[in-house]
């Protein structure tokens, strides 16, 4: 077995486990955890939007909550105002987030380092306070509630989100599709351009890569991912609230991405899963559980800077390298490039 085979096996186990959740957990008397896993899937998509910028372009954004909020309100307002269907509302939410990301990105991607992080926070704060003050439209903290339309209506058969199992599989399918699309992007020539800019934007420009345009494309794609995440969360909670547009939501997504492993495709899923499950287990016993989350994050940054996914990849490479050396002691060790 090679490292690639081990990764495929691990991915297969993960997919099968996620598919089995709505049946396996209730059989164990843990119905509550089905909704928690669904929530993890949604939040992992927001963390993936952070990871697309941080892990693949080296740009740290604290403004992804803005596009998350636009995705939420795109769903809620379009359903209440126009009585659109599920897929139309989802598309409107993603489109609203993408347009907002395009507007913000035109200015933001001209900057790098802490300047980029600051301007993303500024955009998030501007629209957060605007949404809080426009209660006639957004509902402010109270938010806007709505009744989700059927996901599918064929021949009198309706697939409704009021069915927890159906809701879980709809969320799983959309999130899996987004991660699959992201995998295609990061492994495409466009994804190679992302990585080249991350390593050295000046050299990337010298070989003909349009740095500004490439960063803008990534920024809009990240905004679209955050918008889908917000739209799914709106369907999940049946409402949209301006409180989710505050930058602390982006901060949590950054933590999930870092703990899970920036520049790793599934790192955001592992990071969000680990910390949200930890939160649910500890919060009932200790009200200051966020202190423990902060300590865990610091320890990960200090001792496992490549996160959960990166550390797992390192262990796989070391294990297979020792195995190959043990099989033939006279064979020189293969030089394995550290994955990024």
Strand order of the largest sheet: 1-4
Instruction: Give me the number of helical elements.
Output: 14
**How far apart are the first and last residues' alpha carbons, in Å?**
22 Å
CATH top level class name: Mainly Alpha
Which structural class should the secondary elements be placed in?
Answer: mainly alpha
The total beta strand count reads: 4
Stretches where pLDDT is under 50 for at least 5 consecutive residues are: 332-340
> What share of residues is helical?
over 70%
Strand content: under 5%
Q: What integer value in Å does the Rg equal? A: 21 Å
Strand-and-helix sequence, N→C?
Answer: HHHHHHEEEHHHHEHHHH
Mean pLDDT: 89
CATH fold-level topology: ABC transporter involved in vitamin B12 uptake, BtuC
Largest sheet: 2 strands, antiparallel
Shape, per Cα inertia axes? globular
Under the CATH scheme, which architecture would be assigned? Answer: Orthogonal Bundle
Which keywords apply here?
340 residues; mainly alpha; ABC transporter involved in vitamin B12 uptake, BtuC; two-stranded antiparallel sheet; two-stranded antiparallel ribbon; 14 helices; 4 strands; globular
Description of the structure:
This protein is an all-alpha fold and 340 residues long. It has a single domain, classed as ABC transporter involved in vitamin B12 uptake, BtuC. The protein is 74% helix and 3% strand. The strands form two sheets. It has a two-stranded antiparallel sheet. It has a two-stranded antiparallel ribbon with strand order 2-3. A hairpin with a 2-residue loop joins strand 2 (152-154) and strand 3 (157-159).
